[in-house]
Specification:
By secondary structure, the protein is of the alpha/beta class. It is built from 8 helices and 16 strands.
């Protein structure tokens, strides 16, 4: 039986803080506890590693590039170092398929993917390299914004990232080293959350989805009315469906259907892709994809209607 070898993947563009975090974690905090560790670096950033210091701590540095990120090379490195721990500092400019399609040696198990973001350049990268950045953020288990200051739009970033990744822990590290989760500021909502009934305009669905997924408790017991399309997953029960919308999560080529489970006695009469007006009450239950609790809707009425003027909803930063 093969012993499990944990693999940690660090993602992010140049100057995002990957190398600094790896150095602090491995050396200053002694993360590897002296175990044989293989550190694979796919790009050379501003901060360079002290190879002698790494070897002193039983950490073996190997550079990887387009030519040697292969099944065979990783197998050779596994045989050479027999690592008990593997860290991969991934090249921020590479598509993720490059690493996710590589067959790693037996026993290597990815246990955490961390995505690092320089808060000072985040908007620039989002505007110019949105697809690559969103792919990294979408696949991360933890997202770390560093170089934050009083102008960093922490709450806005945190809320918006829920559109592409509902499970990741999001951390903001300030210049003074303090850390917070960016949840102190309330997002300004286009509907009145204090009312017993929330009526969504067509363009408000995306923001409702993000906010309710992030903070389901504040919607508990609220009545809601909104326009959506019908989706009936094959694994759902006869009285369950998802009223939702197609959302552009990063670019025209990246459109996903988003919505919450809905319980409704007349589900059998609904047809996939039909547009409906849903009236119901919000509760919550465990979602596997949320890795926690999320909203559900108990519908009193579902009525067929005309399509929204713009069939897509958008998540803007």
């Amino acid at each position: 039986m093969n012993k499990e070898i944990p693999v940690y993947v660090f993602m992010g563009f140049l100057e995002s803080g990957k190398t600094t975090f790896a150095k602090e974690t491995l050396i200053d905090r002694g993360f590897n506890e002296g175990k044989s560790t293989l550190l694979l670096v796919a790009e050379e950033g501003e901060v360079e590693y002290d190879t002698a210091l790494l070897e002193k701590n039983n950490i073996h540095l190997e550079l990887i590039d387009d030519t040697n990120l292969t099944d065979e090379h990783l197998l050779e490195l596994g045989s050479k170092y027999k690592p008990e721990l593997v860290l991969i500092e991934y090249n921020g400019m590479w598509e993720l398929d490059k690493i996710f399609n590589v067959r790693v040696p037996k026993g290597w198990t990815v246990v955490q993917v961390l995505s690092f973001v320089n808060a000072e350049t985040f908007d620039v990268y989002v505007n110019n390299m949105k697809k690559i950045m969103m792919d990294q953020l979408r696949n991360a288990d933890m997202i770390i914004f560093n170089r934050c200051n009083e102008n960093t739009k922490k709450s806005e970033y945190r809320k918006s990232l829920r559109a592409v990744n509902r499970r990741a822990q999001i951390i903001f590290e300030n210049a003074d080293g303090s850390v917070d989760n960016g949840s102190d500021e309330e997002l300004v909502l286009p509907y009145d959350i204090t009312q017993d009934e929330i009526v969504l305009e067509d363009e408000d669905f995306g923001l409702f989805y993000i906010d309710a997924a992030d903070a389901p408790d504040k919607y508990l017991g609220k009545h809601i009315k909104f326009k959506a399309q019908v989706h009936k997953p094959s694994n759902y029960g006869k009285n369950e469906f998802v009223p939702g919308r197609f959302a552009m999560t990063c670019c025209a080529a990246d459109i996903a259907f988003v919505g919450f489970k809905c319980y409704y006695g007349g589900t059998k009469n609904l047809i996939d892709r039909d547009w409906v007006i849903v009236k119901g009450k919000i509760d919550k239950e465990f979602y596997k994809e949320f890795e926690g609790e999320g909203p559900v809707i108990f519908a009193d009425e579902v009525v067929k209607t005309s399509p929204a003027e713009d069939e897509l909803v958008y998540f803007n930063y």
